[in-house]
Every structure is written in structure tokens, then in C-alpha cells.
Amino acid sequence: MATYEQALELVDRLTSELINRRSEIDRNNDYYRGKQRLKFASTEFAKFHGDRYRDFSDNWVQVVADSPVERMTVTGFQATGEEKADKELWEIWQLNGLDADSQMGFLGSINSARSFLLVWGDPDDPDVPVVTFEDAAQCIIAYEPGSRRRRRAALKTWQDGNAEFATLYLPTEVWKFHRPLSQQTKTPQMADVDEAMSLWLPPGEQRRRRVWEPRELDDEPNPQPNPMRVVPMVELPNKPMLVEEPISDVSGVTAMQDAINLLWAQLFTASDYASFPQRVILGAERPVIPKLNSAGEIVGTQAVDLDKFQVDRVAWITGKDARIAEWQAANLKMYTEVIEVAVGHLAAQTRTPQHYLIGKMANLAEGALLAAETGLVKRVQEKHLWSGQGLREGARLIALARGEDEKAKALRAGRVLWADAESRSHAQLADALLKLKDIGFPFEWLALRYGLTPTEVADVVALREKEMEMDPVGAMTQLMAQRPPAGGEPDEAAAEDREEVLA
Fold first, then answer.
1. Which of 148, 155, 253, 489 has a 20 to 30 A CA-CA distance from 224?
2. Rounded to 5, what percent of the chain is helix, strand, coil?
3. 3-class secondary structure per residue, 169-234
């Protein structure tokens, strides 16, 4: 059991590391939401056009991040040695709303390089633990030295009002702390106010405002025991590395996103200034308008406002030496062609299909579309593997929270069931399943392959059995067609089928 000093030291260290991660996490989230800061090719361009295009963004980051998430759908969990998916575990998954929240968790992992799954028992309903996906900006896990899976501790932090809270999860106990918002976790405006106020505080009070203090609750001890005897939080990395940190799909897109937005800004500027043929008047004085007095006599002249020419586009010019020169409008197509090339590079680098980004479809055959999506399918399958390890451990934590130790062992080596990552037409999928049926694959496996959840498969099987009871002759015909004679005479096999139907 950890002492208060050991727990406090661990919270400080994990909080410091979490703060270091937040800058990239916040930047990636801003890019996903389209809040990019437009990067300019020169200071002169930024000086004249920075404010003009301040709120503009052509957001490709969101498309790149969303494309794999829409194909990451969990359909169930299956323990080792079991033939069917675990019905109780799927019920807990749905009661916690994870069929929807899991999409947010996967998106958070893609944007922030990781997300987390937290499991904790509910005292009001011991059979249904509380399971939540957590953001990478609020959670961090400490691993044992030399291990990427053996969890030593986990920390979750959050803000509420003008205070910051932290919960430290250890294998044997859970600690809860709080403190005023620190400089690193405040907005710039709040940080400036806090810094100004700290000048009036004595040194001891300044230090106290930065130190975590135990958060005492009336109905819970601090620390409270951890009945699961394991750290109840798991990490879902996006693209794990052997040594370095996981990699976000967004981090590598931001540079190309900046280049594309810069090209758009330059295109808009060229469109405003050089999209029409430009003309210049040579050998003539600037046009003037005579000034008249009340008697109609000319008493002076006034220069014509040149902005009026831009609107009227008509000018009367006199003088034998006056002439007009002209040059053609700028070729704006050059910019759009470069933008398309940049978007093509983006598609290749992120394995996002071109038709997701370009926005126009050609008359392609179905096989050609499947080939175009091969990179995305492989990318999704990789994420199934990476996230599946964490989800499988999360399923084990759910069993531990329910006090089912044997089931937890079986789930630890079980597997996560996913919907098919490949997008195919119903006709093509049905044809493939019929061929698999002909070589002996069972009906329930084919139904899962079709995309049904284990719960839906059970319902379909029950309806199928009900139909067979209502139509015994048709059921006997189906059984005879599906069950060729093996090891006996055809008449004996047919008799067995008849007995099975009649039974």
C-alpha cells in the first residue's frame, strides 16, 4: 500500500508528463475542428491579408480522421473456449452507451495518438460496472519498467470551476486529490490574473496553491481500497512504437493542410486582384472634374475618384497621345491544379481513398472501387488490432468488477468481434457467403460475417427454428440438402433427418 507521500509524488510526476502531452493534443483537436492558423509564405502577405483570411480553413484533417472511424464498429466479445459471443458482456456494453461512445473513443485515439477505457464498479448496481472512454488530455498510465502492458498506476484529471481534481488508481487503492487551477491548466487570461495575484501572496501560500491536497469525501475513505486488485484503466494506442510514443494520424497531415490553405488564400487574392484583364492608361493626365460656382463659372478642378472607375468601368479620355495597354487575367487554374496535387499526396500519405477527398466520382466498376479502398481497409484492420488489445483487457476488467475471476481469465485471451471493415454491395456479399456455405461454414458464422451483431444472430436463429417448426417438410428438405450422407447409406441419412425434424 502506498503512503501519502508516495501517492503525491506519483501524481505530480504523471501530471507533469500529461501537461507536456497536451500541447500536441490541443493542436490536433483544433485542426480537426477547422481552427487552423493560416501559415503565410511571406511576412508581406501576412501583413496585408492575415486578417482577411483569419477564419478560413479548407479542412481535410476531419475527413482523414473520420474515414477509419466509420468502419470501426464493435459487435461483441468472445471468451476463450466459448462458441458464441458473451451476451452479458454485450448487455453491459450497451447499458453504458458504448456502442455510441466507442466511436468518440476511437476518434480520440486517432486524433490524440491514444485514448483510454476506465472500468469501475457501481455500488448501486454491482452487476453493471461503469465503463467510460476517456480523453488523452485527461488521463495517463504509468507502466512497470521495461513493460508496455503491465500497468503500475493510472491518473485521471479534470477541471470543475476554479479547481482541478485528480484520481490516482493503483492496484490496491485509489487516491483522490484536488488543488486550485495551476498556471499550465488555465487559459492565458486566467493565468495572467493568477500570476498577478500571486505577487501579493506569501511564499508559503504560493507553494500551497500548487500542491495537491487530499480530497476528503463524507461517504468514501481516502484512499479507498481497489477490489479489482488491478489498475482499472487501459490504453488504446493509435499507432504504437517499440520505443517512442504512439503516432496520431492527424500530426502528419497538418503540414500539408497548412500548404493547401495557403494556396487557397493566394488563389482568393489573385481572384480579387488579377482575375479580370488589367488595363493601364499611358500618355494622359489624370482626369479631373471642373468646380463651378453658383453662377456656373469654372473656378477650379477636382481629381476624379479612381475608385469610381473600378465600379463604372467607363472613362472619357482626351488627348492625341493617350493610349491604353492591357495584359491578360491571371490563370487561376494553376492554383486549383496544385491544390489537387496536394490533396492527392494527402490521400497517399494517409491511405485515404481519393474519392473521399476529391469529391467527384468516375464511372468505376465495383472491383475498381474496392481496390481504391484497399489502403483504408488495411489501415482500419491495423486499428482493430491495436485497439482490440485494449478492449480485450477492458472486457477482463468488467468481469473483475463483477467478481467473475474465472470469466476474466477466459476474456483475457479472448477476442473482440468487429464489423467488416470492407465496404461491399449486398449482392457481392451474399454471393460470397453462399460459396462459403457450400463448403461447409455454419449458418451462425455466416450471419456474423454478414454484419449482424451476436444478439441479432441469436434472434435470427430463433426465428429460423420457429419457421422450421411451422414447416417441417421444408425443414426436412433443407436438412437433407445441407447434410450429405457420411459414413452410411443415403437412406439411413435421410431417415435420421426425418427423425430430427419430427422430434
1. 148
2. 50, 15, 35
3. ECCCEEEEEEEECCHHHCCHHHHHHHHHHHCCCCHHHHHHCCCCEECCCCCCCCCEECCCCCCCEE
Contact 139, 156 (CB under 8 A): yes
Residue of 450, 465, 444 lying closest to 84 (CA atoms): 444
Question: Which H or E element spans position 292?
Answer: strand 288-292
Element (H, E) at 150: none
Q: Which helix (H) or strand (E) holds 502?
A: helix 490-502
Query: What cell does 199 get?
Result: 505577487
Dihedral over Cα of 297, 302, 308, 310: its sign = positive
For residue 136, CA distances in Å to 22, 105, 155, 162, 199 come to: 8, 10, 11, 21, 33
Q: Quick check: 357 and 60 in contact, CB under 8 A?
A: yes
CA dihedral 208, 210, 211, 217 (to 10 degrees): 90
- Per-residue burial over 305-314, b if 16 or more Cβ lie within 10 Å, else e, is eeeeeeeeee
Chain centre distance of CA 260 = 21
Closest among 425, 446, 412 to 230, alpha carbons compared: 412
Q: How far apart are CA 294 and CA 314, in angstroms?
A: 29
Q: Which of 9, 228, 5, 277 is nearest to 121 (CA)?
A: 228
What single letter denotes the amino acid at residue 248? S
Cell of 83: 462458441
Residue-wise pLDDT for 160-191, tens only, equals 988 999 999 999 999 999 998 865 454 444 44
Distance in angstroms (rounded) separating the CA atoms of residues 336 and 266: 11
Q: Give kind and range of the element (H or E) at residue 302.
A: strand 298-303
Q: Which of 321, 324, 281, 327 is nearest to 304 (CA)?
A: 281
Mean pLDDT of 56-75: 90
Which of 368 and 230 is assigned the larger pLDDT?
230
Collapsed DSSP state (helix, strand, coil) of residue 369: helix
Determine the distance from the C-alpha atom of residue 328 to the mean position of all C-alpha atoms in its chain, rounded to a whole number: 46
From first CA to last CA, the distance across the chain in angstroms is: 61
Q: Is the pLDDT of residue 145 over 50?
A: yes
Beta carbons of 317 and 281 less than 8 angstroms apart: yes
